[in-house]
Amino acid sequence: MEQDIVNLLKERIMSLEEAYEQKISELSLLKELGDTLKITSLANWDELFTKQLDIVKQHTGIYSGSLMLIDEETEELYIVSVSGLYHAEKRPAIKLKRGEGVAGKVFETVQTLYIPDVTKDPNFLDKGTRQQGSLACVPIISEGACIGVLNFRDNTPRSFSPNDLRFFELIADQLSITASLVRAYTELISLEKKRMNLSRYFSRGLAEHLVADDRMTQLGGEMKTVTVLFADIVGFTPLVEKSRVEDVVQVLNRYFEAVVPCLFKRGGMLDKFLGDGVMAVFGIPDASEEDPVHAIECAVDIQRQVIGQQAALVAEGLFPIEVCIGIASGNVLAGNIGTQEQMNYTVIGEPVNLAQRLESIAAPREIIISKITYELARRLTDAGFAFEPLPQVRIKGISRDIVPIRVLYEP
């Protein structure tokens, strides 16, 4: 009787020691996983996930592990990182829909699934990987939602015990922290890219407002009614030929530094710099009846700024410049052109061509606008400037005669 009690106590002590060692092993693994976040940048998230999977493989002794995350746009699981498979970079590109295959069912049910022998389970989709043995798929949960699946595989059937599955779920909880941090990081990077891209076109305040506006950050276009402005330095090529490069660059910078604030002040979009010229659009992202007026006011601001710079440029030993401006209104196709990685927002249509042609016939310090711009502007406001119709002209690229209108303003 006494020996039985001793044996029972020994068994109990051994069980407690095993449980203690298991806890130590679990804590050691979790600490190592946490340490990778301290030494690896979130910018290198693929390296981060690979390191963590390698640590998991080393501690658990599994044959291989893989991490799948959910593409929020397609609602499909895709492999982010794999540990333990040779030539993993050559593996088939596996994507699973909700409910498809074992991992897809985990995504759907948000419950751990254990397949003792994948060769005998109808839910397992081989997808060209020629797997065999055991498979455990554990959901990665963040804020109550499944954001991915962690797969544990061993070549031997029935390899995993209930304790193993509990341990796998503990690992998935730790990796959910990494996955959530990476998702937050990539979202922030995406927002910053959008903000930087929009800052090329708009004032800082308007760019911040438009960050979430898909119209400005996605490929494609739509028809819009806008007013287009072209401003160009008069006779710039001869000035360049007889001036030092350093002086030319300095004058151009001073010119653009004067022009861009004028555009942003009046709500214009900076479409592009054109060597010594600027193209701007009023009416993006949303059109207003006052766009033609704002464009003319902007043109007057630019002329006054450039005229005001002349004395300072001469005093600094640089050459003075004068600007001619053309403005036209009408319908254009507006949108992003290029690729998802490199796109440019611009407008295409007759008003663009017409504004550029009107600028080309303008004299130094002149602002020439189209008849449509004039008709829209004169009905809306008395902005302190007047208009003077000019004789009809035929402009290259425009199939009809054009009636240019000169804007009269005080310099």
Give the SSE layout.
Elements: H1 2-39, H2 45-60, E1 64-71, E2 76-83, E3 95-97, H3 101-109, E4 113-115, E5 134-142, E6 145-154, H4 162-199, H5 204-210, H6 214-217, E7 220-233, H7 236-241, H8 245-265, E8 269-274, E9 277-282, H9 291-315, E10 323-338, E11 343-348, H10 350-361, E12 367-369, H11 371-378, E13 386-389, E14 393-394, E15 401-402, E16 405-408
Parallel strand pairs: 10-12
Antiparallel strand pairs: 1-2, 1-6, 2-3, 4-5, 5-6, 7-9, 7-10, 8-9, 10-11, 12-16, 13-16, 14-15
Helix pairs in contact: 1-2, 1-4, 2-4, 4-5, 8-9, 9-11
Give an overview of the whole structure.
The longest helix is centred in the N-terminal third of the chain and has 38 residues, at 2-39. The strands form three sheets. Strands 7, 8, 9, 10, 11, 12, 13 and 16 form an eight-stranded mixed β-sheet that branches. The model is unreliable at 16-21 (pLDDT under 50). The N and C termini lie far apart (114 Å). It is built from eleven helices and 16 strands. It has helices at 2-39, 45-60, 101-109, 162-199, 204-210, 214-217, 236-241, 245-265, 291-315, 350-361, 371-378, and strands spanning 64-71, 76-83, 95-97, 113-115, 134-142, 145-154, 220-233, 269-274, 277-282, 323-338, 343-348, 367-369, 386-389, 393-394, 401-402, 405-408. The protein is α+β, with helices and mostly antiparallel strands and 411 residues long. A hairpin with a 2-residue loop joins strand 5 and strand 6. Helix 4 (162-199) runs antiparallel to helix 5 (204-210). It has two domains: 2-192, GAF domain (Beta-Lactamase, 2-Layer Sandwich), CATH 3.30.450.40; 203-408, Nucleotide cyclase, GGDEF domain (Alpha-Beta Plaits, 2-Layer Sandwich), CATH 3.30.70.
